[in-house]
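Hi everyone,

Forwarding the result from last night's run.
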Amino acid sequence: MRFRCIPLFRERCCSSQAAEQNPQAKLLLTQPGVGPNTALAFVLTIGDVSRFGRGKQVASYLGLIPREESSGGRPKLGAISKQGNRLVRSLLVEAAQIAVRFDPGFRKQYLHRCHQKPKGVAKVAAARKRHSGESNHATTAGVASSRLFV
């Protein structure tokens, strides 16, 4: 049992060192709730961010945008498309859930959405808003993440 814990500790050290060496991952580490594993998984999945024009396209690539089945000018939004990497999507939702606990402005938006929708839907919407660079609050980390996506 003792020998199994040592490789896990080494992996954590390696992932944090790799995140510190990568400039995009280092920028993502400034966001509340984003750790080295989340930052590295995001950077490695997205690749070159210049191929996306807006943060909404990044959210769509990761499968955080709801499906839309509209006809006759009447929009119908369904569940999220789940077209991206499942691990990165779950890490981003978890990071947004942590950010809700520590950012008062973000928490207010989340709680407002919880009154209208189920909590699971509000969590995914929070992740989409947080990690697509569409945040309305002007913190230095928010500005840094929006620069990362442009």
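The first strand starts at residue 66 and ends at 68.

Cheers,
N.
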